[in-house]
Amino acid sequence: MNRADKDRRGAAPRRRSWRLVGGLRTRLVVTFVVVALISAVTATALAYRDARTAVLQRTQNAAVNDFRERVGAVAADFDVPPDQRSLSRFAAKVSEGIGGKIVVARYQDLSAVSDSLADTTSRITVELRTAVMTGDDAEFQRVRWRGEPYLVVGMPVTYADGDRSTSGLEVYAITDLRAERDDTAALLDSVRAGIVPVVLLAAVLALLAAGSVLRPVRKLGRATRELAAGDLGTRVAVTGHDELADLARTFNETADALQASDTDLREQEAKARRFVADVSHELRTPLAAMTMVATVLEEDADQLPPDAARAARTVGAETARLSRLVEDLMEISRFDAKAVRLNAAETDLADTVRASLALRGWTDRVRTELDEGVRAVVDRRRIDVIVANLVGNALRHGAPPVTVTLTTALAADGEWVVLSVADHGPGLPPEAGERVFDRFYKADTARTRGAADDSGQGSGLGTAIALENARLHGGTIEVADAADAADAADAADGTRRGAVFTLRLPLRRTGEDTE
User: Fold this and answer.
1) Distance CA 385, CA 375 (A)
2) CB 3.0-4.6 Å disulfide test: which of 104, 192, 420, 513 passes with 172?
3) Distance between CA atoms of 112 and 114, rounded to whole angstroms?
4) Rg (CA), the chain
């Protein structure tokens, strides 16, 4: 694993943790605060409305009752029709009895005000005068004058017989409501000031509640990431009997089942690897004897009858194939058991490729385009295996010319060795591109057996072993049709002309980190 992969794997849990803490915690806190704020504002509005209504109701009831009683008491000694002087005395007496409020008395065209300097015209509305003139009891109205609130109470003066026609006197009292307004405003300010501590308290409680809810969620998320990373022994402590506790129990049960399944699979896989390795090892001795016998038979095949000679050569070929299959199985077993090690040293890759081709007698059958002086720290034997498998595939399943190209390429993550093997055969079927490196996969069962290797017919493991060797060096192998490759100039007619296998290895030199 390179450092970028480690950074990405390390960054992903941090991002998930940030989303868990920052997102869900924030939503919970915001929800709590918004609910508390709406509740506080609603309670404040209702309290202000009720308090204001109660204060004004109490004031106007007191004003109306006091005014009615005072008018009744003063009107008992009042003679009708009055003159201006007696009407003024009447207004002054009524005002004295109700706390010095402004009193206006009207009789036909006469009008008297207890405070001669007060402006009462705009405070006694036409609607109120009409209600007083047509009614027989006290009427009141709240008005605003010069931006200030006032309560105006008016009533007609009647006598015991209830015959209003014998009077004609109307009396009005103007009460200042600024004190009541200030009281309700002070109440509103005090309640409004209490919203801030309520919201802060709600935020604190929300944080505590979010912490109690998110703590097990964070633990469960952390355990899930550890489980996904391969730590199957991870478990979550179960506390309480709520839904989170049920979720933790379900997680633990799932982890138990997964661990049990993993243990069984590992045991079965280990048994299978041991079986393959043991069988392969046990087959080596009889195969060596069979190979010796088959070699002798093949050498003397020309002296045998035709049928016997054909059988001898067939036995020799199949014995060689079986030997190769056993060797490949043992090699795959070592990869599965992670028992392979690189014997790396700085190597001239062009010389390695030429030596691999010469060893198998392919020098005259393969065209090479090798950059000279390309040296890298590699395991020479494993590079030889890769070259033998890829070139053997091209010779067996492709068509000449087969070209081996060795270059270097500079990428964002460093310099790479690029080894390409191209042929001009029928190429790979569309469905074979993703499976060509699978073990025992046959791209075309009608052709010669198996994917290729360097000896006779393939074992079906050649490309898989080549890919494992490439990965062991930190590289990979890719496959594409020549028509899709950059150097497929002869595929201009649009037909598929061969396949291209490309080996990519990081270019490491002596003294560099080869981890």
Assistant:
1) 18
2) 104
3) 7
4) 52
| Bridge partners for 502 per DSSP | 420, 478
Give 224-269 as a 3 state SS string. HHHHHCCCCCCCCCCCCCCHHHHHHHHHHHHHHHHHHHHHHHHHHH
H-helix segments, 78-170: 84-97, 126-134
In Å, how far from its chain's centre is CA 215? Answer: 19
CA distance 467 to 389: 10
Q: Give dist(CA 485, CA 466) in Å, integer.
A: 21
d(CA 187, CA 179): 12
For 450, the token pair is 């198996």
Q: Write the single-letter amino acid at 256.
A: D
Q: For residue 126, what are the CA distances in angstroms to 63, 103, 143?
A: 21, 17, 12
* Contact between 472 and 332 (Cβ < 8 Å): no
Helices (H) and strands (E) in the chain, counts: 11, 12
The owner of tokens 């033998």 is 388
Q: Vertex 459, ends 417 and 360: CA angle to 5°?
A: 55
Q: What is the Cα–Cα distance from 16 to 4, expressed in whole angstroms?
A: 18
Helices (H), 116-194: 126-134, 178-193
3-state class (DSSP) for residue 179? helix
Average pLDDT per run of 10 along the chain, which is 515 residues long?
45 45 68 80 79 79 83 79 85 82 84 78 82 82 83 80 62 84 78 77 78 77 84 82 82 87 80 71 75 79 81 82 78 76 90 93 92 91 92 86 92 89 82 75 49 47 87 90 54 59 88 54
Question: What count of other Cβ atoms lies within 10 Å of the Cβ of residue 125?
Answer: 13
Phi, psi of 152 (to 5 degrees): -115, 120
Beta bridge partners of 148: 145
- 8 Å CB contact between 266 and 336: no
Which bin fits 464, alpha (ψ -120 to 50), beta or left (φ > 0)?
alpha
Give the separation between CA 120 and CA 103, rounded to whole angstroms: 9
Tokens 């409501």 belong to which residue? 177
Tokens of 438: 């699978």
Question: 206 CB contacts (<8 Å, ≥6 apart)?
Answer: 28, 29, 31, 32, 33
